Amino acid sequence: MINQLAGKKIAATGDKPGVTKGQQWIKVGTEMDLLDTPGILWPKFEDQDVGMRLAATGAIKEELLHLDEIALYVIKYMVQHYGTGLQERFAITELPEDLDNVNEVVKVMEAIGRKRGAIVSGGKVDLDKASLIILRELRAGKMGRISLEKPI
Predict the structure, then answer these.
(1) Which of 21, 76, 98, 125 could form a disulfide with 110 if both were Cys (CB 3.0 to 4.6 A apart)?
(2) Helices first, then strands: H and E counts in the chain
(3) 51, 58 Cβ separation under 8 angstroms
(4) Does this model's pTM top 0.90?
(5) E strands within 18-145?
């Protein structure tokens, strides 16, 4: 947004958190100065869903999380709110009915992993690789125009 307002690439940008390392004042015309600062997150969220949604979008560094948990969260959310889109994107025929059953949700992740070639020796699905595929496609917008929040 700062680069757009300034009309030139003046602020560093990236698709991962932690790009802005320090404060930087940026002049926008003659009337406005903007301060670009590193983002700050609370060390603990009262609502676990807030943290999961931020993690799913990439707002929290991947190194701090268990990607499989975040990917399972995304699958559950997509099944609940965008099931048809999930089926179309990954050519999945069946979605779980019981989202509280982790094994059922893992089956969807395995199906996605199989479709995308995340296979290790013995024909097993590499769940870490499947998790990365799911999260990267979500973040790139390849799952369609979705929102991880609904207005109250």
Answers:
(1) 125
(2) 5, 2
(3) no
(4) no
(5) 24-28, 32-36
Q: What are phi and psi of 54, to 5 degrees?
A: -60, -40
Q: CA–CA separation, 97 vs 104, rounded Å? A: 8
- Dist CA 133 CA 79 (whole Å): 17
Residue 22's alpha-carbon distances to 19, 26, 31, 37, 38, in angstroms, are 9, 13, 23, 6, 6
Q: Which amino acid, 51?
A: G
CA distances from 138 to 19, 31, 35, 49, 150 (A): 21, 38, 30, 17, 17
In the chain, what percentage of residues exceed pLDDT 90?
Answer: 51
Distance (Å, whole) CA 68 – CA 66: 6
Structure tokens at 8: 């030139």
